[in-house]
Amino acid sequence: MLANASVQAVQSGFETLNLINSICKVLREEKYVLPTPIQEQAIPYLVEGRDLLGCAQTGTGKTAAFALPLLQWLEKNREIVRPKSVRTLILAPTRELAAQISESIRVYGRYLKIKQAVIYGGVRPTLQIRALSRGVDVLVATPGRLLDLLNQRQLRLDNVGVLVLDEADRMLDMGFLPDIKKICKVIPTKRQTMLFSATLPAEIVKLSKEFLNDPIQVTVTPPSSTVKKIEQKVLFVDRENKPALLESVLEEDQSIYRVLIFTRTKHGADRVAKRLIKLKIPTEAIHGNKSQPARLKALDKFRSGRVRVLVATDIASRGLDVDGITHVINYDLPKETENYVHRIGRTARAGMEGIALSFCDAGEKSYLRRIETEIGRPLNVDQAHPFHDESIANKKNGGRKPDSEKFARGRARGGKSRSNGYSAGKNKSFSSSQNRSSGKPINRKKNTRNKRAS
Ligand code: AMP
């Protein structure tokens, strides 16, 4: 649930949004008292059948903003679903996000008789094909798997009445544009289309012109009350000392009880997880090399608190909706500011406070500079930790140094007895994926098809 503070600006409740009783009942049961800004601004138009271009990130309540009108459309346009046919389609970039949306549809639609299915790559398609064979009211899918099954004639899209493209900017980044175009070609043009994106770069505006018909446009930024509750710190540390620093941070501060650690590579994630497990710290890892069932199982353990630490790569964590993450640790700093913002946004959800710690070695100093420039302010430096490396703090030039140079600098100081002082408390602010100083969206990496989810 979102914090009350995040919806304070909204005056009226859900009853003014023209939603049907069976949906309002769920909202009451879920204790959604007030619509979030995106819900308030979008739902009245969406229930009238208008197209939408929504600029909103995860955490703003965007899933309900599209799911509730979609379910209402289904209820108002009841018809028997034909075998292999799909009545509404939601496209999402990653398996995790698709599974999450599907779960939301199940919750919001629990008083409606709807058949739904979710399909994504990385698992055998047998069960997905079986679910599709009966026909579905709602299909949530990643583009790659959808196109595969479409080509195998396991489903048909000629009866789709509502199409949602969620995290469209991410889908473009992941190289899904050709797949999306192929998919849209076989969906009737007489349909309602909703496109959501965290930023609105030129490609998205172009895409919206191609796929949307006279859309309303709604832009929301994450509620500042939530955002302000992330305390961000950078810890300068020699690369060799990162494992020891992580160990020290996790051992000394028990208030770090649900922590998401990011590494740049899959192997890095496995290495960190293995080490922590050796130290008897309950840990799971999720990344693209893990099977889908293994990823879902790991997520489930993390959500339920059976493991304290989840180590993830950027792709695997996209759209991750886990409440109560107390800390995000950037074991490796991301090259892209957008990933930094997404990573730290996994904490301080649902009105809670959160802390983001970024380990920065000499080679990552340039990434740090870019992040600080693009979010419009420097991060606080934590000098109190036992592995603080002043030479990195003072380093002028960015870029990764050759290993020989790195080793020549010698070992950092040892000792683990000092308090790290990582307990949640002070409020700091951070920027969303808009560049604060310029107000422009942060540059996004161009298409990298190898990052696809399916
Ligand atoms: P989303 O941005 O769709 O990922 O939603 C973020 C979280 O906010 C989810 O856990 C939703 O269940 C919750 N949420 C969405 N809308 C509301 C609302 N109007 N009131 C309270 N919680 C909400």
Helix content: 25-40%
Bound compounds, each kind once, are: adenosine monophosphate
Our count of helices gives: 18
If you compute it from the alpha carbons, what radius of gyration comes out, rounded to the nearest whole angstrom?
23 Å
Main beta sheet strand tally, sense and closure = 7 strands, parallel
Residue ranges: pLDDT <50 for 5 or more in a row? Answer: 1-11, 223-227, 398-454
Strand content: 5-15%
Shape assignment: elongated
Just give the CATH class of the largest domain.
Answer: Alpha Beta
CATH superfamily of the largest domain: P-loop containing nucleotide triphosphate hydrolases
- CATH architectural category of the largest domain: 3-Layer(aba) Sandwich
End-to-end separation: 30 Å
Q: What average pLDDT do the residues reach?
A: 82
Strand order of the largest sheet: 3-4-2-5-6-1-7
Find the CATH topology of the largest domain. Rossmann fold
How many domain regions? 2
Q: Can you tell me about this structure?
A:
The chain is α/β, with parallel strands linked by helices and 454 residues long. It folds into two domains: 2-219, Rossmann fold (3-Layer(aba) Sandwich); 230-435, Rossmann fold (3-Layer(aba) Sandwich). It has 18 helices and 14 strands. The strands form two sheets. The chain has a seven-stranded parallel β-sheet, with helices on both faces. Helix 2 (37-46) runs parallel beside helix 3 (62-76) and helix 6 (143-151) crosses helix 8 (177-185). Bound molecules: adenosine monophosphate.
